[in-house]
Amino acid sequence: MLKPLQEWICDTCGEIIRSPHDGYVEWLSNNDKQQRGFRIVHHARCSPKYPSGDCYKYINKHPNHDSLALEDFVSINGLILLLDSLDKGSYHDPDF
Question: Could you tell me the pTM of the whole model?
Answer without folding.
Answer: 0.81
